[in-house]
Amino acid sequence: MDAVVSVFPSRNYKPQTTRSWDFMRFPHIVKRNRAVESDVVIGFIDTGIWPESDSFSDGGFSRPSKKWKGACNGGQNFTCNNKIIGARFYSSNTRENSARDTNGDGTHVASTAAGNKIHGTSFYGMAKGNARGAVPSARIAVYKVFWKGGCSSVDILAAFDDAINDQVDIISFSLGGIMAKGYKSDVIAIGSFHAMRRGILTSSAAGNAGPYPNSVTNVAPWMLTVEASTMDRKFIDEVILGDGTTLKPDITATGTDILAAWSPLNSPSGIPGDTRSVKYNIISGTSMAFPHATGAAAYVKTFHPNWSPAAIKSNLMTTASAMNDTKNPDGEFSYGSGHLNPAKAINPGLIYDAHEDDYLMMLCHLGDSHEVLAMTDYEKRCPKKFPRAARDLNYPSMASDLRETHFIRTVTNIGSANSIYIATVSSNYDVNITVSPEILCFKSFKEETNFRCCSQGDRGKKYG
User: Fold this and answer.
1) Interaxial angle between packed helices 309-318 and 187-197, expressed in degrees from 0 to 180 and rounded to the nearest 10
2) Where do the coiled-coil regions begin and end (predicted)?
3) What angle separates helix 187-197 from helix 356-366, to the nearest 10 degrees?
4) Angle, helices 153-166/187-197, rounded to nearest 10 degrees
5) Which residues in 216-338 belong to E strands, given as ranges?
6) Please, is 71 exposed, middle or buried when counting C-beta atoms within 10 Å of its C-beta (0-12, 13-18, 19+)?
7) Under a CB-based contact definition with an 8 Å cutoff, are residues 294 and 171 in contact?
8) How far apart, in Å, are the Cα atoms of 125 and each of 36, 53, 121, 245, 433?
9) How far apart are CA 355 and CA 376, in angstroms?
10) 121, β-bridge pairs
11) Could you report the per-residue pLDDT of 199-241, keeping only the tens digit for each?
12) What residues pair up with 87 in beta bridges, in sequence order?
């Protein structure tokens, strides 16, 4: 039928604050645009939420902005407020009928990204302190797709559709399948692509997710994918790379021993026989790291509400703190562009922007025109000739396994009108990197210019 874009089998997916924000040099008193922050809505596609948690109380919150088009359809025994302004659930595989979180993961993620500041929290006396999200004035919309045993592709796609139509600003997604799929049949890639088309950035874990070690996420270049680090910057998770020449994950954020809100219906360990019930829990994994990036992206959005998803992601990547690879020479392929530094991300100087057609051309390079573009509802087909290679997608990172590779990038000046940027190269002895031109001079705000980067090294090794 003409109305059918593509058909593929449904499969099963599983889910993947405190000290951590201070560790990333993002104190509670950081510069804020509170009027705009209260209009930012983060959509959480996850295990639901525990609405009674103090992290989601709406004291001091006014009614949401008129731009919000969502609804509170949280089902049985679920009430929204002026903090949790939207709730939906998708239950094609179960008879349950509530957006209430019985697992804990969705509650933990939401409070890490956008929870209120709560004084004196702890887990049985451990990690005492103040639990808070990156954007405590932001609103929350919940899309529960996970039930006992997992969730289905059809529910995930429905949740993406609703979140987009509800007009959320950022989508948080922490679910993964047993193995990565190609873009054209992966609902995460498809859903996040449609979100990108509507100006919505999707933030997701890059690798294994929390207590579900076999789940992975497709690392599409239009998504923000995040790896986890410890407080002392040690890496804990394996990275699974997706299709294409783009280097992933994008960035690293703290994901170990994170104290955040929890559903009292699930024990803190999740082990049968554990009868404890807690309001806050300490857990680790990429599912704990990526909500830090989600919150940081929402923070950037409050200062630059009209920026594209690619521009927001570029800000986070180019302002990341460099990480020491002397203890782990291969570390750069695990930690992306560096460690998240939210406070710096609102003023990066230069941005690497990209839009829908840029990603479509990259997809055309990667496969058959009809199959690749079937993931969109696009009438376009791939051209016979491409102006640039797939590796020239305007992305802040570059990757190649060839002996010699040239990359072209376009940067936009969002710093001072009269600005000069000088290229610096830090490289090991195996690869030689040159940048041309070495100096970029700008005379106006939003002026664009190109540069070329060339890498030369041993064939068969991958460089980033």
Assistant:
1) 100
2) none
3) 150
4) 10
5) 224-229, 251-254, 258-261, 280-283
6) middle
7) no
8) 36, 18, 8, 47, 51
9) 14
10) 129
11) 999 999 875 443 333 344 456 889 998 888 876 433 344 444 4
12) 72, 142
Round to whole Å and give the CA distance between 44 and 140: 7
- CA 327 vs. chain centroid, Å, equals 27
441: its two tokens:
């001079």
**CA neighbor of 191 nearest in space, from 212, 231, 218:** 218
Contact call for residues 161 and 190 (beta carbons, < 8 A):
no
Query: Is the CB of residue 308 less than 8 Å from the CB of residue 199?
Result: yes
The CATH number assigned to the domain with range 356-457 reads 2.60.40.2310
Task: Give the whole-angstrom CA distance, residue 396 versus residue 414.
Answer: 15
Task: Specify the CATH number of the domain 12-347.
Answer: 3.40.50.200
How many degrees, rounded to 5, is the angle at CA 51 between CA 62 and CA 150?
130
227: left (phi over 0), alpha (psi -120 to 50) or beta: beta
d(CA 280, CA 257): 12
Give helix then strand counts, H and E, for the chain: 10, 20
Counted residue by residue, the chain has a size of: 464
pLDDT bucket at 327, cuts 50 / 70 / 90: low
Written as six digits, the tokens of 444 are: 């106006």
**Strands laid side by side in the 175-176 sheet:** 151-152, 12-15, 175-176
The answer to pTM > 0.85 is: yes
Non-local (6+) Cβ contacts of 463 within 8 A are 399, 400, 401, 430, 431, 455, 457
Least confidently predicted of 24-33, 81-90, 422-431: 422-431
The predicted structure's pLDDT at residue 208: 43
End-to-end CA distance of the chain: 44
Residue 313 φ/ψ, nearest 5 degrees:
-65, -40
| Cα torsion angle, 159, 162, 163, 164, sign | positive
d(CA 267, CA 214): 21
What pLDDT does 4 receive?
78
DSSP structure string for 140-152: EEEEE--BTTBEE
CA distance 89 to 360: 31
Looking from the CA of 313 toward its CB, the CA atoms found within 13 Å total: 32
Cα–Cα distance measured from residue 158 to residue 145, given in angstroms and rounded to the nearest whole number: 9
Where exactly are the structural domains of the chain? 12-347, 356-457
Residue 20 phi, psi (nearest 5): -60, -40
User: How does DSSP classify residue 210?
Assistant: T
Residue type, 180: A
Quote the pLDDT of residue 243. 44
Average pLDDT, the chain: 84
Reported as a pLDDT band with limits 50, 70 and 90, residue 378 is low
